[in-house]
Amino acid sequence: MKHKQLVHWNFVLLVDLQFPNVSNLWLSFDDTLFIPEKAWFFNMEIDRAIRECDDRRLQTKYKNATYVVQRALTLYSIEEVAFSFNGGKDSTVLLHILRAGYFLHKKGQNSVNGDLKDFPIRTIYFESPCAFPEINSFTYDTAATYGLQIDTISLDFKSGLEALLKEKPIRAIFLGVRIGDPTAVGQEQFSPSSPGWPPFMRVNPILDWSYRDVWAFLLTCKVNYCSLYDQGYTSIGSIHDTVPNSLLCVSNSSYKFKPAYLLADGRLERAGRAKRPSSTGGQLPVDSNGLTSLDSHKNSMLTASIIAVGDEILFGIVEDQLGPYLCRKLHCIGWSVFKLSVVHNNIDSVAEEVEQQKSKSDMVFIYGGVGPLHSDVTIAGIAKAFGVRLAPDEEFEEYLRHIIGDQCTGDRNEMAQLPEGITELWHHDKLSVPLIKCQNVIILSATNVSELEKQWDCCIELAKSSDLLALLEPYVSKHVTINLTDVEIAQLLSELGLEFPDLYIGCYRKARYGSVIVSFKGKDLARIDSAIKALHKFQLVLKFTGGLV
Ligand SMILES: Cc1cc2nc3c(=O)[nH]c(=O)nc-3n(C[C@H](O)[C@H](O)[C@H](O)COP(=O)(O)O)c2cc1C
Ligand SMILES: Nc1ncnc2c1ncn2[C@@H]1O[C@H](COP(=O)(O)OP(=O)(O)OP(=O)(O)O)[C@@H](O)[C@H]1O
Ligand SMILES: [Mg+2]
């Protein structure tokens, strides 16, 4: 009785002095209740922070996420659920969502009682020698702060889960997976584990949260997060594959980074993954010759495919000018164009062509069919080619809102749906909408040459400071007109081809009868001049018709 009175007194005090809105939140509490003070404080603190902030989006996300937790706790008993916690930012968000969701669940059952533990959900942590020490210590410190019952597993995920499921009656595991994570593709808030994995339900309460939502939550609730995020790390894997995100690099220093919450484009949160250079402090990886990956590309051969999407081009109503423009521009940055194709405004036609070209070429450029019209199916076709779905992209939506204002109808802007888990946005000050890149497919929204010129120039500027596109030694070419017919020149040209295998030697004519134009293309001007000189020996060259650098 003494306890009850004491707690009741605490509650009243909180309501009166510190939490003026609290009476709206915990309507079912009465003076027969005993809640350990710590549990009260943390759960109310999160809930209060969210409800008092003026971020309606965050409030909706929070409400939905805690609802998923409550739903799971209705479907499964507390012994049947586990929380997969690894000290990362997403699982830190999930921890607090679970705490709040659990509390609301108990409250809904009117069974908040004196036995309420701080956090009774079994917590599993796959510990690895390759984890950052900061992640390890944050995980254990957090467990101590919030009273988590942590089971440390030293096996890989699959074997660890197999062993766990044999031993414990676990049927559902909460994960901090979010749309945009490579592993989120195809997942829902409740998704059974994949074939080949032990059977359990993956519960993803924050699946639809964006990078920005995560930071809005952590900062609004003022909860602790791992210190690495304040040192420019934006997504944390192992010590071997994670560096600070170079997009957060402080401009006058290559080893000082801004905090993770300042990353403007959440899609680039994994830009620090899979790169761990030795001593360059987050710069591009350096090979044994001291060349960066971009340098080492310089003399290699990269191929591009270009896909135009347009019924009108195929009907012969309009002429495609963007394809030839891109071919010239790609040659200027040393790329070979493998194929230039035109497809109908049809999801399957786009998907089929993208699917083929993305595996044959290093980069695919696609234009046409991008926008709000019924015929604008390019992005859906790309998603289909990669076997992913379209998912709302809030950053992209914001850009669109800037340019089209409130003209878009409905709750969701269909144009802001982008292929899930494979999309990067590339920003440039001169572009009102960023460039969209889905793995090795770059989507160009230009509809005429001058728009394309602007997008291309931005692409090149971005390529200079990032790995958007490798800039190679440019191709140079020269053309000469020959005073023989194609029949007469054929043998000589094929011999020349054998002598200069490093050059592309092509031939075309402007009319069936008459002179022939020979074109030489390569990366070494001196070699091109030698080949032309060889033709001169035969006194065949009528005139030099020009060159392209
Ligand atoms: C509890 C748990 C359950 C998982 N279940 C699956 C699964 O069903 N299917 C799967 O392909 N991967 C599963 N994974 C592996 C993850 O998809 C992913 O590989 C892991 O979280 C590493 O992500 P990262 O590369 O972003 O660090 C699971 C991982 C954990 C911790
Ligand atoms: N070693 C691990 N132990 C337990 N759970 C893990 C582990 N690695 C991943 N998970 C689970 O998978 C989820 C997704 O991992 P992911 O690395 O994408 O997110 P995070 O670590 O929470 O944040 P970040 O993206 O910043 O690294 C985690 O939130 C967690 O639920
Ligand atoms: Mg992580």
UniProtKB/TrEMBL annotation:
UniProt pathway: Cofactor biosynthesis; FAD biosynthesis; FAD from FMN: step 1/1
Keywords: ATP-binding, FAD, Flavoprotein, FMN, Nucleotide-binding, Nucleotidyltransferase, Transferase
Keyword match Membrane: no
Superkingdom to which the source organism belongs: Eukaryota
GO MF annotations, alphabetized: ATP binding; FMN adenylyltransferase activity
Listed EC numbers: 2.7.7.2
A GO biological process held by the record: FAD biosynthetic process
Domain MoaB/Mog, chain residue ranges per copy: 305-466
Cited InterPro entries: MoaB/Mog-like_dom_sf, MoaB/Mog_dom, PAPS_reduct_dom, Rossmann-like_a/b/a_fold
Catalysed reaction equations from the record: FMN + ATP + H(+) = FAD + diphosphate
The keyword Nucleotidyltransferase is assigned to this record: yes
Coiled-coil features, chain-numbered ranges: none
SMART domains hit by this protein: MoCF_biosynth
Designated name of the protein: FAD synthase
UniProt organism field: Phaseolus coccineus
Lineage of the species this protein comes from: Eukaryota, Viridiplantae, Streptophyta, Embryophyta, Tracheophyta
